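check this:
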Amino acid sequence: MTKKIDDYVKVLIEDDLKTEMSQREIAIKRGVSKSFVNKINIKLQKNISLGRKYGSGRK
């Protein structure tokens, strides 16, 4: 099962990306994978919300 990442950590990652810190440094600093940081970076570039979509969850 995957590790649930808090919204607080996502905001911290967003701030780190805005200060032009490398994705690798952010991943080490925040304890998440590089691919997760990359996914957040892509969402920010496309102006997509970092939150979950409505209705996404257990049915």
